[in-house]
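Forum: Protein Structure Q&A
Topic: Joint prediction for protein chains with partners

I've read a bunch of threads here and the consensus seems to be that you should model interacting components together rather than docking separate models afterwards. I'd like to see that in practice. Below is the full input, 537 residues plus whatever partners are listed. Could one of the regulars post the assembled result?
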Amino acid sequence: MNIVDTLKKLLGESGFAGFFQNGGWQNAVMIVIACVLLYLGIKKKFEPLLLVGIAFGCLLVNVSYFLNLTEADALYHPELWNNFLDEGSEFYHDYGHILAHGGFLDILYIGVKAGIYPSLIFMGVGAMTDFGPLIARPSSLILGAAAQLGVFLAFFGANLIGFTGNQAASIGIIGGADGPTAIYLTTKLAPELLGAIAIAAYSYMALIPMIQPPIMKLLTTKKEREVVMTQARPVSKTEKIIFPIVVTIFCVLLLPSTAPLIGCLMLGNLWRECGVTERLSDTAQNALMNIITIFLGISVGATMAGSQFLRLQTLYIIVLGLTAFCFSTVGGLLVGKLMYKLTGGKINPLIGSAGVSAVPMAARVAQIEGQKANPKNFLLMHAMGPNVAGVIGSAIAAGFLLKVFGG
Amino acid sequence: MQIMMDVAASGTKLPFGNNVLTAVLGYGVVFLGLMMLMGIVYVMGTIFKAKTNRLEPLKVAKLPTVGSQSPQKLKEPQGEPAPGTAGEVKLYGVPDKEAAMIMAIVASQMGKPLNELRFKSIKEVKEDEV
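Posted by a regular:
Agreed with the consensus. Here's the joint model:
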C-alpha cells in the first residue's frame, strides 16, 4: 500500500467524509444544535449541570457516528439499541451484546436504559428536600396534584395528532417538570424519543421564570397575589422521619410501578432526616448526585444522533412539551384560586403554580411574583409545599402511565 | 392531521374514547392518591399536635415562676436547669458577644439548633497555658 492510498483510505473513513455521504448533513446540523445547547447551558445558564453534558454527548455522537461509514469507532450505536428493543431480534434485551459491541456511550447508556440513573438522581433530590412545609400544610398536596393537568392534556393532544399511546405518555410527562421522571418513563415506554424529550424537559425547566409569570398574572388578580399567608406550624423531627416511610408504603402500595422513583426519593429523604446517617445523606446529595448527573447527561445526549433526532416529531414534542408546562401551571393556579375562595382569602393562589415540580425554581418564581405584588410578601416556604408535592405527583402520574402502557 | 412518524413496535395509537378515558382516569388517580396522602398527613399531624399539647402543660408547670423567688435567687439559679432551657453558661475571660459567636459556631458545626445544646462554661485558653 503506498502513501497516497493510505491517505485516501484515511480521508474516506474519516468523519469529514461522512458529512458528504447520504444523511451526513444531519450530523452537521446536530453539531450546530449541540453548540447552541452548549451556549445556552454555559452562557445563559439553562440547567447547566445537565444541559452541558447532554449537549456534549450530542456533539460526541454526531462526530463519531455516521450512517454510511464504519461504525466500529462510534461511541454510540443506535442500531445496537434498535436490536435490543426489537422483540424479533436475537439480541432482544441482550445487555451482553451491548457490552461486547458497544462504544463508551453505549455502556454508559445502560444505566439510563435500566432506569438506574433517574432513580439515583431521585435519591439525591430526596436527600436535598425538606418536606417540612408540605407536612405543615398537607393541602399543598392538592396543588401538587392539580399541577399535573398539563401531563394529561399533553398526553391527550399527542394522541390526537398521531403519536402512539406509549409515545404520548412520554411526551405528556414533560408537563410534570421533572427531568429524572421524564427520562425514566421515556426510557421505559418510548426510548426512540428520549433525546427530544430530555431536551424539552430540561429546557422548559430552565425557562420557568419566563414561562410562568405571564400565566400567573393572567389568571390572578392583584388582590389575590398580594395575600400574605400566615406562618405554618413547626414540624417535629419525628414527623419528618415518619413522613418518607409513610409515603413509601402508601404510594408503592397504590401504584407499585412508582417504587423505583418514590422509593429512592424517600430513602434519600430518610437519610437526611433520621439524624444518624449524615454521611450517606451527604454522599447522596453531593458526590453521588454529581457522578450520576455526569453519566446521565452525557448518555442522554448520545441518543441525539442526527438520523434519530431530526424528524418532524421532535418539533411536535417541543410544542407539546411547552403546552404541557403551561397547562400544568394553569392547573395549579386554578386550584390555588379555588383554595383562596374556600379559605376566605388566606391562601395566595400563586403558590399553586409551584405545584409543577421543578424544585426550587417554581417556588422561587411564586416568591418573586408575590413580592412584586406586595413587597412584604414572603411566599417561598409556602410555595415549597406544593413544589415538593409536585415531585410526588409527577412520580404518581408516571407510575400510572407506566402501569397502563408498560404492560 | 396525521403525521408521518415511526410507530413503536409495541405501541399503537389510542382510539379517541380510550384517549379521553386514560387522560381523565390518570388525572383522577393522581388527585385521589395525593388526597389520600393528604388525609394521612393530616392524621399524622393531628396526633403529633395532640402529643405536643399534652406535654406542654407539664413543661410549663416545671418552669420557675418569677414571683416565687427573690431577685437575688433569680440571678443564681440553683439545681438542674428547667426543661426546655439551656441553663446557665459560665464565662471565664470571654466577653458575651464572643461567647454567643462561639455557641453559634458550635451549633452550626454540629448541625443542631442552639436550643438543643447545653453549654456549661466557656473559658479562654491563653497561649502560655497551652
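The two ends of chain A are 57 Å apart (CA to CA).
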